[in-house]
Amino acid sequence: MLGVGSIIGSMAWLIHGPMLARSGALAAIVAWLIAGVMSLPLALILMELASMFPQAGGPYVYKFYALKRLVPGSGEMLGFLTGWLFWIAIIVGLACMANGLANLLAAAFFASAQAAPIWFAPLVIVTLSVVATVLNLQTVRTAASINIVFTLMKVAMAVVFCLLVLIHPGASLDNLVHCPVDPLPGSFWSKVASVFMLAMAGFSFMEMTGCMSAETRDASKSVPRAVFLTLLTVTAIYLVICISIASVAPLTLSADKTTLVLLGSTVQANCPALAGAIAGPIGGNLFTAAVVASIVGCGFTALLGISRVSYSMAKTKLFPRQFGQLCPKTGVPKYALWFQFWCMTIIALAASLLSHTSLFPDAYTFLAEVFGFMYAFVAMLYGICVVSLRYSDPDMERPFRIGKRGNLLVWFVASLTVAVWGYAAFCCVNWVHQAAGIAVLLAGLPIYFYYKHANQGVEN
After folding, report:
1. What SS3 state is found at 309?
2. Which of 10, 59, 127, 205 could link 6 by a cystine bridge, Cβ 3.0 to 4.6 Å?
3. Res. 364 pLDDT band, cuts 50 70 90
């Protein structure tokens, strides 16, 4: 529930129209399928690492420990930067979701995001940040129950949307072959590549279950199992939703050529808009409300996980020490949660305001690509760490192990992970998104050196 809840936010319901417009139906579906299959090696790596380190903030702990062992001297800095990269990447992903929610509500209230007043998106962004943070200030048991409700709702949404498409008179699987926006320029595989990074980004957050290992029963076994089940579930949801949207007809390119719309209308090819076109205004409004709840639930779950990363970073004395303090009433790191609130809000607001300039037309898709590029580095680092730990700590307990004996299989899985995510990062992302991601990563350097210097002063 934690894994699915943290992954399924806005992309499952809103990203397919832009992807279909860029690549066509079959290429988009193939991209989702390949992304799901290519995420399996990463899932296996996360399963082994989670079984080795059933601790709070697992994704930080894995890399910090492994890189300190792999690179004596500079390993601590590299370990911190990889933890920072994971933490800030999730913040960027949450800022992306906030802008996606603003676009969705702008379309509901003002017909389009472009028609909404400039104050509307900031209001939505701040509201989402506040609600997700306040929900996280509850006890762990209460938070777990809230997440279960949100996640069951998301699965129900996927089922309901598919049933709505089945009753649509224009829906047909033939539309997958005769997509109205084809032929697009380029070969079939170049079309797949054009949306591959977005599809891969849709499978990030699989490690979120590992962030909560310290609060999970029998974490060394239950967390690896949860990672695998998460991958299966979200792959099914993405594929079913993409096929359902692509099968609706007649669809055509929007006026700005950024998404698909129903022919002769401004109804966009996303779940809430199509639900309204099929089931009427009430159905559309209900589905829009459900998507809003889905995004809130995803933001809530992601903040839940990375607050534990902040906690672990503080415990290594490389982040503000207050982030390692737990509220005596609820047992949650409230200082880390409020810091995350401000970071998410500032990044989301900055992207929203910049989208009104000529730098980029849409904050949602811009942040999605930047997040995907940053997360690709995180994924590649997991592969490096799992191999290095096989040699630096061969006798460490591994309840889940890639391959029963030897290291050949883990080398293959890690190499495949590095190759796939490296290809997605460097061959499927525009240089502007790459530069933005690198700039955010390098912002962690002054943080490391500040706390490293402060710690040395205390020791002296």
Report:
1. helix
2. 205
3. confident
Gyration radius (Cα) of the chain, Å = 22
Q: Is 403 helix (H, G, I), strand (E, B) or coil?
A: coil
**Whether the Cβ atoms of residue 330 and residue 139 lie closer than 8 Å to each other:** yes
How far from the centroid of its chain's Cα atoms is residue 184's Cα? Answer: 28
DSSP structural state of residue 157: H
Which residues does 213 contact at the CB level (< 8 Å), separation at least 6?
50, 53, 54, 55, 56, 58, 219, 220, 223
CA distances for 85 relative to 63, 374, 398, angstroms: 11, 7, 26
| CB-based contacts of 83, cutoff 8 Å, min separation 6 | 57, 59, 60, 63, 64, 309, 312, 313
pLDDT in the model for residue 340: 92
Whether the CB-CB separation of 131 and 301 falls below 8 Å is answered with no
What's the pLDDT band for 256 if we cut at 50, 70, 90? confident
pLDDT of residue 65: 92
Q: Amino acid identity of 83? A: G
> What is the b/e burial string over 426-441, where b = at least 16 CB atoms within 10 angstroms of the residue's CB?
eebbeeebbebbeebb
Q: What is the mean pLDDT of residues 345-353?
A: 91
| Residues forming beta bridges with residue 132, ordered by sequence position | none
